[in-house]
Structures are given as structure tokens and as C-alpha cells.
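Late entry, adenosine monophosphate complex.
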Amino acid sequence: MSSKVKFINSYEKLGEEYFSRTKIEAFDRPELIDVNYELAAELDLELNDQEYLEYFSGNKNFDSSVISTVYAGHQFGSYVPQLGDGRAHLLGEIENIKGETFELQLKGSGKTPYSRFGDGKAVLRSSIREYLASEALHHIGIPTTRALCLIGSDENVMREGMEKAAMVTRVSPSFIRFGHFEFFTHSKKPEQTKILADYVIDKFYPQAKSFEDKYEKFFYEIVIRNAELVAKWQAFGFAHGVLNTDNMSILGLSIDYGPYGFLDNYHLGFIPNHSDYSGRYSFGHQPQIIHWNLYALANALTPVLPLDKSGEVLQLFGAHFLRSYIDLMREKIGLKQKKDTDKKLIQDLLHILAEQEIDYTIFFRKLCDYRINGDNSEIYKELKKVDIFKEWESHYQKRLLQEVWPDLNKNAEKAEEERSMQMKKVNPKYILRNYLAETAIKQATFVQDYSEIKKLRKILQHPFDEQPEYEPYASSPPEWARGIELSCSS
Ligand code: AMP
Ligand code: MG
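Prediction complete; structure with ligand written out below:
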């Protein structure tokens, strides 16, 4: 059976300083909660449910060499010299028919030499959250690791109380983090940093090799990818929650879902993690934190790239972030042409949303149906002070009329319909609100009913579609769920 999936492990070739060979701690009585068959198809995986259950709970082994990797990282601003895959096991890489490679990694699969004081386990609650979030972000168009399947168990683990353990199989072209580079440079192994950089460049940034300084180009690409990533988080209202440098992907992907949250009401100060007392990782701080993390990476890359060079590259971050963010927001309000005044128009709207505590996703989805001379009462209903919005609306109208709509004079209705359709492709109707995840978690935890997880995954795989049968899943949180606090224990 194991020959059905062919694994290689190119990371292993870097040498033993980069990882440890580790053993998966299988669940005795695993339960298959969900398989993401849509992703399985992208990977050309042909396994049945029984095989998913056995292989991804550690009860059967693929013909692969399992490893856990070492890394370090800045956690809440302080450097921790050694972290690593404390509860994750890399099975290796597979290749699909298109020639794309993906690493498969189990999370919650037992202790490793990097577990420190941890038990190597992950709880069901956090595994469900990771499983659903990565799918939700991917389908919105935000770069992220993915999740292939979710396995439950009857094993008890101690967190804030007793909870059940679970395992998620994660999928990514690579799980290498900024922290991998930090580990080698700060433990005075500059040659190892160079080997790692060459590996990542060869495999993921080969275009950098044709530049005079491939390391500069490599760093440039990482800066750009991360500026674009955080622009998307800001535009779609996602707060990661724990942006330590060990949770930063070298490929610019969202990775390690813990106490994250999507915005309900628009609020820059939104802090999803209730142990983030200072708000270091609040929604509004994310761009500057990513910049800080890139600076930490620049420091870790000094064995291949001097700081004066990386510093110059880093200076491009701010402008690139802002440009990407404004471009996304411009699309969200239905504008195609770029005008200097757009930034202010967008800022003014966000100011109104913040002041009036308006649901971010619902508002933008309703704005998709805005009509210049039509009935906009559905939008007004979302607002607490309509007069202030109407002032903004007068500028918005003028701006919309500056757009070159095909035959606007002849067929304004058609042009507005077209704008509305375009807007609905960038303003999701369905996001993974905390209360939705919470409902799925409660059912799974208390009555072992996994149907809500499957249902949510399916809904979130089509975030821009109307899906009228799931209308309630597009609502703002009910009273019981307002201000749910998320623990970072997982
Ligand atoms: P995180 O906050 O989940 O990104 O994890 C930070 C570090 O702690 C990483 O090195 C993890 O592998 C490790 N870690 C987190 N939880 C556990 C656990 N239950 N057992 C072992 N290591 C863990
Ligand atoms: Mg982590």
C-alpha cells in the first residue's frame, strides 16, 4: 500500500544539523474526522478513507524517512535560541502530475527532541481551527499552508482542562520559517545558513540565480511576498494572532494557525489572542510587525547578505505594502482606474466603519450592490449614522462616474451590474468567523458530531458564491459569541 504514495525528502540531504529523525506517536483508536478530497485531488493522491485513517494517525507508515526540523525564533520580541518542530513530523515531499512538489507534515503527532516542556500533542479544538482556517484563507486567495485531513482520538491531554488530542496533516511546498535561518546564524553556524539559503533559492527562488547577487534578489522576493501577504490579511480582515518569527514562512505563506481571528466589526485594535496583553499582534499592527520580522530575517541572513544591502531592500517594504493594500481596497470598492485620491476615499470609509462599529465583511458585500441612482437602503441599514456615510457616498459617486464604463451613457444598468459582479469576486460573503468555528468545535467535542466541520469546509471553499442555502453562515456573530476570547493553548 505504502508504494501508492512516493515520498522523497530533499531537506534531509542538507545534513543532520538541520533535523532529527523522529517517530510518530500513533493514536490507539483514531477517528477520521474529515478528508479534504479537493486538496487530495490537487495532489493526485488516491487513498481511501481507511488509508487516510491509518497513515495520517501514525498507525501505518509510508515508505518515507520521517524527520522533525530545528529552528529558533523571536517570540513576542525576545529571541528564543532553540525551538523546532516540537509536535510536527515531516513525512517528506510528494510530486503531482504537474510536477509541483508538496511537503506533508503531521501536527500533533508526538514528542520530538524540540518539544521542550510540551507533550507533542495538539488538541481537537485547535486542530479544527487550523484545518478550517487554512482552507478558508486559501479560497479567499490568501497564500497559506493547507490541510489535508483531520484525525481525532480518545487520548486525553491537559490544557486549560482535559481535552482530546487530534492530528492535522498539513501540506505546503515548504515549512521552512524565518526561524530556521535565525537558528543557524545566531548559533554561530554561518556556513549552515548559507547552505540553507542555497537550498531554498534552488528549490523555490531559482529565478534569483540569474541576478548579480542572488541573495539580495532572494531577500527582495521574500520582502515582496510578505508585503503582499500582509496587504491581503488587512484587506480581508484577518488577524494571525501570533506573528513570532518562527511562525513566518520563507515562502510568504500564512502558517501556524493559533488564536487567529477574522474581523467582525472593523477595528484596528482587534487582538484575537487573549494572552497578547500589549496588543503587539493586534490587527492594525500586522504590517509593522511583518516589517520587524523581515528585519530579524535580514539579521539572520548576514552570512550571505550584508545588512547595508538588505536594509536597502527592506526600505521598499512600506511602499509595496501600501500599494498592494490600496490596490486590493480599490477593487473592493469597485474601482478599476488608479487615482491619487483613492487612498483618502478608502481611509475615510474605513474611518466610518470603525467609528460606527460596522461589520467589515457584511458591509463590503452589501456595497457590491451599490447603484449610483438606485435604492441603496440595504447598505444604509448597516450604518448607525447614515448622514456621515452619505457625505462619503457623494465622493464615491463622483469617483465611480470617473471610471470608464463601457457605454455608461447608453447602458448604465449593465455597467453597474458588471461592477457589482467584479466586486463580488473580491468581497467574500463567507469567512471563518470565530463563532462558526466555535459551533463546529462544540459539536465535535461534546457530541462527536463532525458534520459542522465538513459543512463549514465546503462553504468556505466557495467564499465568493452566494450559496443561498447557507445564508445564516454569512451573519455577524450572535450575542453569545460576541468577543469570544481565544486562548493560545493548543
Ligand atoms: P506555536 O506557538 O504553536 O507556534 O509553537 C511554538 C513552539 O512550541 C514550536 O517550537 C512548537 O513546536 C512548540 N510547541 C507548541 N506546542 C507544543 C506541544 N504541545 N508539544 C511540543 N511542542 C510544542
Ligand atoms: Mg509555531
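Residues 246-247, 256 surround magnesium ion (ligand 2) (CB under 6 Å). Will revisit in the morning.
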